[in-house]
């Protein structure tokens, strides 16, 4: 079954969606832009109010200075005091003081605590504005110079901050309301234009992954999402078509594999039957002639009237033919018996190659066919042990050496050289038996280790020796083959695993 896409409500849905991420990003951007703007507007508002208050205080100071000058010119102290008191109060100055050119206080009016901390301005007198800390809070002190006097007016500025607070709160309320309205609008816009079409596309793709054959593309949303849905629909159609073709290919490959399996089974049965046929033909060929001879001689013996010497001769021949049949059957059993299926369950003992070579040479020496054959042994001084028992290795090498001697006798009238070599090749021990005889024909070489295949004349060999040798060597985990690169004579190679 095809794997399904993750649903909206699955564990993937615990992650912030596209809509939430955009809203959070937009909120962060608005916060980043509006907070500095809010503080800038608040600072500008306070600065503007302070500037207006400063201008008003400066104008008030000039007006007071003019009135004070007129009052001082008249010499009426009471009028001067009335003039000062008319300019102090809730909507006026906190305190007013008039100093002469020497810094002596001429007249004052206003808050006594403020007057107590007021000091004459430093000379030379002029017009100036300064922010000071009074007893009632921060204040603005304006100094205005007159012809013979200087007027100092102290005005309250803390109330300016109080006047600016409502305006600042109004600006904050406006910015917050605008931001929330924008976020709500963005939320619903994103839901309608992006999120819902994307969710519909995901659900449609999930249905296709669950087995639906058609992708229902949502029609709503932005143009880009509609184009995306059309592209996904086209891709789904192509994937479904490719899936159909792939299924057809898989079915075709399954059928082809089934046919190949059946053909291989038929071929294996045919090969087994062919092997059995060759084996039966070989057995019939090898045993047929001795049995025919035995049957013929038995008929003659049954007819009687034969001299005693002839009967004895027939019996001796019948015994030889029977022994021949027994030898063929024994070799056939040796060929069919695996090396591991021995009477003892113990693991075969490995053997030293060098003593086996000496035993083989010693067994070849008494043979008549080796009277004129030179046996040369070339082996490494230190050879590792091999997995084949000594008796079996002797049997294989002696069989190869006797075959080589027969080949030399056929080609060179019994004169030649037999060369036995043994060398270490990595984790293997390679033993070769080579002769300078007539060699092996190409048409026989590939079948040389099959049962009843022989290059000897009829009656001189059963064709089971090499087959038995191959069974022995392969049963020990090695291999035996004819060297195809030998130009003269024949060279048989054994490769056996070395024992550490």
Describe the structure.
- This protein is an alpha+beta fold.
- The chain has three domains: 212 residues, PAS domain (Beta-Lactamase, 2-Layer Sandwich), CATH 3.30.450.20; 50 residues, Orthogonal Bundle (Helix Hairpins); 147 residues, Histidine kinase-like ATPase, C-terminal domain (Heat Shock Protein 90).
- 57% of the residues lie in helices and 15% in strands.
- The chain contains ten helices and eleven strands.
- The strands form two sheets. Strands 6, 7, 8, 9, 10 and 11 form a six-stranded mixed β-sheet that branches.
- The two termini are 53 Å apart.
Low-confidence stretches: 1-11, 340-345, 457-463
Mean pLDDT figure:
77
Main sheet characteristics: 6 strands, mixed
Percent of residues in β-strands: 15-25%
Q: What's the CATH topology label of the largest domain?
A: Beta-Lactamase
Oligomer: single chain
The Rg value, from CA coordinates, equals: 62 Å
The rounded distance between the terminal residues' Cα atoms is 53 Å
CATH superfamily of the largest domain: PAS domain
Instruction: State the order of secondary-structure elements, H for helix, E for strand.
Output: HHEEHEEEHHHHEEHEEHHEE
The total count of strands amounts to 11
Helix-and-strand structural type: alpha+beta
